[in-house]
């Protein structure tokens, strides 16, 4: 019964919508819709269906590019059309002057509006194309693929996994995942020794949660492993972690923590964390009050010019008095909140304030590193990693690996030189990968022309006792 429920698409789940070679991530909602290029597709029909189901896009009357979905057993294919038609030996006699197609644009639109299937429309295009039979088999295949993308409207709803999610983002914008290619991600997991048990520490400064999702996927749900995901901002990037549809037992293994709060709480204690946040908020508030008062004074002076200097001094002095009163009142409020936060009682009726969620997560992370050293340390960053490595290496256990990823070589070279001068790091290795995919087809095997030539750089090593 559980397996059936897991294979069923439900509201709140993330799915991957695949249309031929195009993929897009979509979160299922009750009455949601999805934009595929210029097409608006109503997605409510996929709820309750099984993953890997295929749907046909049916035009609706609401708009020219609006579609609803209808489940089908399989999608149409145009490959059988090639077997039925002859082909030419070469394309030298073909002149691309735009007159090969006899059907006009209006006639093609009429075919679409008449309800004909995509296969029937493409068949009509082939019949009215003067040069199609003279093309080579390879040229005919390219022509059909181009028409297939335009006229065949079939979607497949796929279950997300690390490979497919990476593929979506890498093709969309590889900079959003830090240029982290799939082979580099695989080596990142291998060199960091991610397993189902033990404590693992990850620092990620902007990869949409891809390394965290991959590591959490390896750790699993019914294990004793934990992953501390350190990040520099207030909120972690967890898009791809959420897109994996992990069960609650598995997401409980992940602890998202701000790295600065983590280090401050570990070395200085809880009061230092609260004082830092309180002072920062208080300073920001004072600056905002001063700025608003200054703007108000300027507006008042512009709207009502003062003829006497004494009058302007009265306005300024009065404003300063109001500002000081508000600042003193805010200081009293802050001191009262601090006493509540620390467990102190301002009066007999006051009770300790509830700790925020981020502080509870930070305390949990500190307890984990105090209980045991980390089994592996992984750093995926866009900034210079030297200070991050120096701060996090003390939390790594002896004889345990660490791996650092960066899109550029020069920052890792500097880290390599700095770590070489220490006595507790061995087996340092800085390297890059060159991965190139090949198109393997009959009589035309060649490398892909449009490919990314670099997947970043990796620095690996082991921490030992001095």
Fold blueprint:
Blueprint: H1 2-6, E1 14-19, E2 22-27, E3 33-36, E4 39-42, E5 54-59, E6 66-72, H2 79-84, H3 105-113, H4 118-127, H5 137-151, E7 154-158, H6 162-173, H7 182-191, E8 199-204, H8 210-219, E9 226-231, H9 239-243, H10 248-251, E10 254-258, H11 259-268, H12 270-303, H13 309-341, H14 357-371, E11 376-380, H15 386-392, E12 400-406, H16 409-420, E13 425-432, E14 438-439, E15 446-447, E16 457-463
Q: How would you sum up the major sheet?
A: 7 strands, mixed
Stretches where pLDDT is under 50 for at least 5 consecutive residues are 298-351
Strand percentage: 15-25%
Instruction: Trace the largest sheet across and list its strands.
Output: 2-1-7-5-6-4-3
In DSSP terms (H or I, runs of 4 or more residues), the helix count works out at 16
Number of DSSP-assigned strands: 16
Q: Average pLDDT, to the nearest integer?
A: 80
Structural class by SSE content: alpha/beta
Termini gap: 54 Å
Overall spatial form: elongated
Helical fraction: 40-55%
Taking all Cα atoms into account, the compactness measure Rg is 31 Å
